[in-house]
Amino acid sequence: MIQNVQILPRNEAYWQDNEWKKLLSTAIRDPNELLRLLELDIAELPYQLDKDQSFKTLVPLSFVERMQKTDPSDPLLLQVLPLSEESIRVSGYSNDPLGESTALAQTGMAGLLHKYQSRVLFMLATHCAVNCRYCFRREFPYQENRASKQDWHQLATYLKKNPQINEVIISGGDPLAVNDAYLVEFVAFIEQIPQIIRLRIHTRLPVVIPQRVTSKLLSLTKSRLQMVMVMHVNHPNEIDDKFTSAMHKLAQAGFTLLNQSTLLKGINDCPKILSELSEVLFSAKVTPYYLHMLDRVNGAAHFAVSNKDANVIYKQLQANLAGFLVPKLVQEKSGEPNKTLVDLTI
Ligand code: SF4
Description:
- The chain is an alpha/beta fold.
- It has twelve helices and nine strands.
- Strands 1-2-3-4-5-6-7-8-9 form a nine-stranded mixed β-sheet.
- α11 (about 270-285) crosses α12.
- β6, α11 (about 270-285) and β7 (about 285-290) form a beta-alpha-beta unit.
- The termini are far apart.
- The chain has two domains: about 10-85, no CATH class; about 100-340, Aldolase class I (TIM Barrel).
- Bound molecules: iron/sulfur cluster.
- The site of iron/sulfur cluster has 10 residues, from loops.
């Protein structure tokens, strides 16, 4: 006999807090479909698609909506479309440009990197909401580095053995690809470790799906930890009203908001575009923080901007903007104790 089970109605907040998952589940995974949505004819493209995609196409519709229809050179499209150039092997490029496998071996723990003295990076998630073609972790062996909840105690032991660490950075994959309940539990766990004063979240998820900013995510600022969220936005066209409104909510809740961009050929290698990016970010309460040189990962060489060109672009950016709107031009060098400022005298 069927029991008389009472089904509790789910309220508006429940649906709002879960809308991002629905948007993620409908993300585009086929480059031909993406081109079709943008009314682009594959036969008339000024480039060819990569047929051998080990790093799959993934882009949510909410990001596609910000692309310009019929423009094959749209800067958002080119960040996610797999081109044939990805198959070309270029000297100086590798699957692990930052030596992360060595750094992981040094901590001896799945998903834990300790590259810089006072902070560790913990990979909370092994997937993203968007697959960016220039990603330095595009070849990262996530399956071997899947840290489970059982590993958190090992993380706590590592932190206690290294009392100089005062900040935990969560990354991935995209750390906001995990459920809110998991995040809340992780923050509560870290909070119990007195030496940790700050939690930093590196994410692109609220950029591609602004609905990821849920009421539960906002509630993380009730923690005693200082909460910093670093967005990854590369082009002003990524910023729309939904993103801006999500950033306002995060700022109001108490998150410190920063942005890091990657300098990408054909996308944002222009002082005018980068100046506009800084201005719109700041209007959305996000401070421009880093402008990264490309990490030399296999498959991404066509995005590289030379140091010489980067210097010219950066000097113009400095001339265009108030000092607090100019991100630091940096590159990461494997084995260095911090990010390296790009030498502007070269
Ligand atoms: S969201 Fe970040 S980690 Fe994920 S593919 Fe893009 S750049 Fe890489």
